[in-house]
Amino acid sequence: MKKIWIIIKREYLTRVRKKTFIISTLLFPLLYMGLIFGMGFIAENSKQSLHVALIDSSGYFTSDLIGQQNLSDKSSDITLVKGDPAPVIADHKAAGYDGYLVIPALNWKEGSDSLLFKANKSYGSGSTAAVEAKLNRIWLEIKNDSLQIDSLKQRILNKHLSVTPKNIQDEKANVKTAEGIGYVAGFLIYFILLIYGSQVMMGVMEEKTSRIAEVIVSSVKPFQMMLGKILGIGLVALTQFFLWIAFVLIVYNVSIASGSSGMATEMVGSMQKIFTSVNMPLILFCFGFYFLAGFFFYSSLYGAIGSAVNEDMREAQSLSFPITMLVIISIAMMSAAISDPTGPLAVWGSIIPFSSPIVMMARVPFGVPGTVPWWQLGLSMGLLVLGFIITVWFAGKIYRTGILMYGKKPTWKEMIRWAFRKN
Amino acid sequence: MPILELQNLKKYFATQKAVDDISLSVEKGQIFGLLGPNGAGKTTLIRMITGIFYPDEGDIIFDGKQFDPVNDVGYIGYMPEERGLYKKMKIGEQAMYLAQLKGLSHSEAMAKIKKWFIRFEMESWWNKKVEDLSKGMGQKLQFVTTVLHEPKLIILDEPFSGLDPVNSNLIKDEIFQLAQSGSTIIFSTHRMEQVEEICNHIVLVNKGKKILDGTVKQVKQDYKENLFRIGLSQPLQELSALAPFELAGHQDDSHVIKIKEGRSPNDVLRFLLDQGLSIHSFNELLPSLNDIFIRLVEGTPTARQFQAMNA
């Protein structure tokens, strides 16, 4: 036991003191937020503003109506062609347009019509959607006018009924918040499993390639060596988490103290609203549990692979592919589980050990025991504990043989045979 | 009392009998040579002694008691053939880590590391990383980490590979010193000239079996071919059938002779004196361990064939 502790200490300290740890701790939240905001920003700015010539044969469209819409919606610009349309049709580029639309001589009482946006470039439906929406608003006004519907009648016509799910057993489980927390928690566990799982693999590979493995196993059991590494790296991941939480709390408190109302304060404020609106202690407990248990489950398998291969990174990648696939399948199941947290896929995905760390974490915010009955949570946790005991045992057996084996890369079949061999 | 006794040790792998019924005993304070060609089973044997493998059959008696890997590894220092250190770890911390894994406390380890670092003039290396060291320096550090915890039994597998003559001698002297101060050393190699120089007792292993066991002196006696070298003032003439020896070769003014069965060196000298020859040197030629090694191992394939197992 004392020796495992010495190994944990080394694994932990060498990693935490590295510059890469400090940099990744600082950079990850920035990257994560950058990803979220950046994607929205790019989506917002990448739409093209089309300059469209409208050739109207129906006589309904007037410059007035179009002008009003152009003022309120600048995502595209529609110009009514007055006079002879021939030059525009002949060469819309020269006339200063990206393309043109011809409205046929239609009767407004008839059904919808499909118009063609003619241009000498291909445009995605994303670019024409803005034009379509604008055109439809103008068209609606024309129709309202003809039917003599005033703004009051229009408001009445626009009234919709909406259906929002509400959990009456667990008042705190707000669906929108639950979805948000589910996504964040699921993705965090996903990142942790992949990043720190491969760290375990690289760490074991380092011991093998630097030929220190045999020196160490003459002092400690290979199993202790593996366990020490997994626990040490798990602690590094936990440390990183605590630093992030501390970071958020500091920003929160500082912004309250300084009384500024920047974006950060708003964000932290809304975060606090979220935290008080759900069963936070339970979610945090589950997060801690699934994070650690899932980490044990996967990192021991990654460790076994690291022990089996030689210095070649490609060997490691090809052997670890099935394991990485399991994590990726879990994240795909998570999306399904969030949109239907009581469906069979969600229930089974959250009980079977390989996917339960991610899928169950996505379901728990919807409410326990409302959405996730206690027995499901208990079964899921029990099976995951059983699961990681089996993978750690299995990995330990492979590790013991693999760590002293140099030469050809073994296949999965051979590795399984190692696991069932006696000492 | 022997420090280590192996009794009918066996270890079979799926494709071969790596160690097939080996018994031997190592006395305290001995420098014990474990010899054998590549793939003879030396490493497997050593891994059982260091607790890395469990034997399939047989017993290991360490220091008078049944070998208990969990506790006894603290009394063993092992420098494997496939050895190395963490490249990115500082040298001082690395030595400390390995010492603590052997069960030393922080303060004990610190005192011993300092002593050894001063002895090997490595004090200034403390904060360097292994990747900054030359190969020879790395080997010195490796040796220090092997013997740091003052093990009763030290196992060195090819300890001189990668060392220049100066550092080789340094390590060799340390090995003698350690043996003198009561440590026992098992020394595994296939470099025979080092064995003759260092070891008192040797065991030769081939194909998983022990084929030779004895002191260096004894083994040489056992395998001598009654060859002598004589220096004469004038070359030997035709030998009569009565001569108690045959010529086995000559160089310059000395001859190598092989004494016939049933005759003694005295017979040879008498014969030569009777001939009126003046002798200025006469000495026995003992086979080198290298010759014995090659003679015993020759004919067996160097790379072991895979043996069929009927398990």
Describe this structure in words.
- The complex is a heterodimer of chains A (423) and B (311).
- With 423 residues, chain A is mainly α.
- Chain A has 2 domains: 48-158, D-Maltodextrin-Binding Protein, domain 2 (3-Layer(aba) Sandwich); 172-419, no CATH class.
- Helix content of chain A is 68%, strand content 4%.
- Chain A has a 4-stranded mixed β-sheet with strand order 2-1-3-4.
- In chain A, helix 9 (222-258) packs antiparallel against helix 11, helix 12 packs parallel to helix 14 and helix 15 (374-402) crosses helix 16.
- By secondary structure, chain B is α/β, with parallel strands linked by helices.
- Chain B has 2 domains: 2-215, Rossmann fold, CATH 3.40.50.300; 225-285, Alpha-Beta Plaits (2-Layer Sandwich), CATH 3.30.70.
- Helix content of chain B is 32%, strand content 29%.
- Chain B has helices at residues 42-49, 69-72, 91-101, 106-119, 135-147, 165-180, 192-198, 216-222, 265-274, 289-297, and strands at 2-12, 17-27, 31-35, 57-62, 65-66, 76-79, 153-157, 184-189, 201-206, 209-215, 227-232, 245-251, 254-259, 279-285.
- Chain B has a 6-stranded mixed β-sheet, sandwiched between helices. A 4-stranded antiparallel β-sheet of chain B has the order 2-1-4-5, with helices on one face. In chain B, strands 12-13-11-14 form a 4-stranded antiparallel β-sheet, with helices on one face.
- Residues 303-311 of chain B have low confidence and may be disordered.
- Chain A binds chain B through residues 3, 6-7, 10, 14, 206-207, 210-212, 214-221, 404, 406, 421, 423, and chain B through 14, 47, 50-54, 70, 73-74, 76, 78-80, 82-89, 97-98, 100-103, 142, 145.
List the helices and strands and how they pair.
The complex is a heterodimer of chains A (about 425) and B (about 300).
Chain A: H1 2-16, H2 19-45, E1 50-56, H3 63-72, E2 76-80, H4 86-90, E3 99-103, E4 117-118, H5 125-147, H6 151-158, H7 175-209, H8 213-217, H9 222-258, H10 263-277, H11 280-308, H12 313-339, H13 344-349, H14 356-363, H15 374-402, H16 412-419
Parallel strand pairs in A: 1-2, 1-3
Antiparallel strand pairs in A: 3-4
Helix pairs in contact in A: 1-9, 3-5, 7-9, 7-11, 7-12, 7-14, 9-10, 9-11, 9-15, 11-12, 11-14, 11-15, 12-14, 15-16
Chain B: E1 2-12, E2 17-27, E3 31-35, H1 42-49, E4 57-62, E5 65-66, H2 69-72, E6 76-79, H3 91-101, H4 106-119, H5 135-147, E7 153-157, H6 165-180, E8 184-189, H7 192-198, E9 201-206, E10 209-215, H8 216-222, E11 227-232, E12 245-251, E13 254-259, H9 265-274, E14 279-285, H10 289-297
Parallel strand pairs in B: 3-8, 3-9, 6-7, 7-8
Antiparallel strand pairs in B: 1-2, 1-4, 4-5, 9-10, 11-13, 11-14, 12-13
Helix pairs in contact in B: 3-4
